[in-house]
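2024-03-11 09:14:02 INFO worker-7 job=invfold-0412 stage=load source=structure_tokens
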């Protein structure tokens, strides 16, 4: 006669097996019907079928890259006919995706060093009269991170509406301190994509990589710099990375304030009314603010880059710390170089992510063979800059699969000739400081490169 314990064990294991089979069946149908790359679909199907106890939980944790927020996604696509606006194709792509149009009447200045960026950032913080809305991926646990947090706390004590959004992974070491200090001073801190969250409110691999500083709804600082010693500081440092930021004033800032309000609502469940600028700004810069990521239905940054590459007739210049494009973007760059467009790629000789460097190797070889000009900066280069003929882009996205398809990102498009020329001049000056051939090849490249390519979606 079977014991009670054995019967209970049998019922539990049998019930678990039946439930797993049923869930696997449902998950297989769901994965097969999802609009994913065939290789991605096959990988998930194999994991769910053969190792369901691991495949199913990991699918819920990692799969899926678009999130529908409570108020809907950030942009609402416009399927209607869009007239040709600027002739580059990018404006039409963005208009049909629902991205706010290019705004005229702005002022723009370029911030090209970590020391200048730190000084400008503190000046923006100290100059705020009503509100300070800040998003960063990394708030460093170092002197620079603490100094910036001190400045935000001081302004919160002054009665300024201070709101800080930090990423749960990038700023993990400062989460508790930032939340506590701002709360005590009367400010607010929201954590983007917490590792522990309610189901279906995000995926572990979707990170908020945006960098925004918005002052009184009137001034906007955007670029690639995080708040840590590697990126900025009060004095020059031999270890500091080269990066770039821009500061805009004018009508374009309104679009950034709307994005921050959307991010704040998602991070805190609190509705925030975006501050309206009370100061008149007169300028000649034509700028367009574009957000991309899980909260945007289409891949607007990726689509814009592809469109700009195919439309380019004179120049395509790319400055990025990590060049790990997908097959389509890589092919676009190769064809761009082959048809005689001056195609320049500027990357660090060695970045801070060795796997990304291994993953880029074969792509660089193909680009060089196609006629692209490769330049290697001798130190770490963290700037994210793109120039296509009469259009320039400065912001937070890298040219890798993670930034293109997974991260929350933001970028400023520069369309007026003086501003585009200023960025193009910065790229030319940077190119003169680079090497055309790396000083040495990474050890073990031929062995590790295939592995790095397989892991490239998560780099």
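2024-03-11 09:14:09 INFO worker-7 stage=emit residues=459
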């Amino acid at each position: 006669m079977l014991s009670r314990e054995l019967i209970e064990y049998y019922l539990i294991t049998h019930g678990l097996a039946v439930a797993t089979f049923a869930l696997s069946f449902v998950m297989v149908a769901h994965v097969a019907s999802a609009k994913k790359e065939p290789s991605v679909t096959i990988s998930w199907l194999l994991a769910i079928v053969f190792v369901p106890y691991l495949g199913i939980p990991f699918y819920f944790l990692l799969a899926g890259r678009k999130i529908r927020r409570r108020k809907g996604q950030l942009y609402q696509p416009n399927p209607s006919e869009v007239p040709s606006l600027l002739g580059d194709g990018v404006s039409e792509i963005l208009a049909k995706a629902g991205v706010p149009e290019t705004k005229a009447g702005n002022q723009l200045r370029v911030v090209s060093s970590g020391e200048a960026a730190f000084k400008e950032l503190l000046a923006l913080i100290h100059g705020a009269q009503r509100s300070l809305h800040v998003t960063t991926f990394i708030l460093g646990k170092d002197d620079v991170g603490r100094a910036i947090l001190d400045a935000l706390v001081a302004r919160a004590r002054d009665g300024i509406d201070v709101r800080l959004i930090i990423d749960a992974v990038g700023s993990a070491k400062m989460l508790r301190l930032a939340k506590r200090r701002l709360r005590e001073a009367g400010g607010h801190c929201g954590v983007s994509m917490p590792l522990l969250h309610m189901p279906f409110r995000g995926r572990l691999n979707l990170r908020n990589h945006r960098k925004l500083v918005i002052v009184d709804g009137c001034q906007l600082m955007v670029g690639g710099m995080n708040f840590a010693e590697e990126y900025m500081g009060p004095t020059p440092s031999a270890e500091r990375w080269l990066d770039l930021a821009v500061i805009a004033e004018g009508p374009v800032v309104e679009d950034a304030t709307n994005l921050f309000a959307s991010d704040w609502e998602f991070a805190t469940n609190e509705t925030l009314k975006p501050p309206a600028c009370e100061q008149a700004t007169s300028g000649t810069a034509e700028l367009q603010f574009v957000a991309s990521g899980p909260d945007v239905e289409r891949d607007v940054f990726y689509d814009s880059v592809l469109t700009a590459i195919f439309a380019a007739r004179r120049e395509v210049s790319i400055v990025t710390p990590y060049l790990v494009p997908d097959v389509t973007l890589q092919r676009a760059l190769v064809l761009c170089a082959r048809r005689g467009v001056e195609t320049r790629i500027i990357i660090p000789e060695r970045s801070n992510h060795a796997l990304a460097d291994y993953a880029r190797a074969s792509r660089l070889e193909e680009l060089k063979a196609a006629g692209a000009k490769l330049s290697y900066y001798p130190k770490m280069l963290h700037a994210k800059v793109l120039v296509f003929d009469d259009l320039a882009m400065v912001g937070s996205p890298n040219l890798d699969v993670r930034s293109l398809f997974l991260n929350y990102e933001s970028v400023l498009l520069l369309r007026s000739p003086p501003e585009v020329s200023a960025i193009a001049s910065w790229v030319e000056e940077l190119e003169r400081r680079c090497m055309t051939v790396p000083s040495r090849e990474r050890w073990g490249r031929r062995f590790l490169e295939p592995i790095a390519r397989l892991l490239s979606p998560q780099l």
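2024-03-11 09:14:09 INFO worker-7 stage=report msg="The CA atoms of residues 303 and 352 lie 27 Å apart."
2024-03-11 09:14:10 INFO worker-7 job finished
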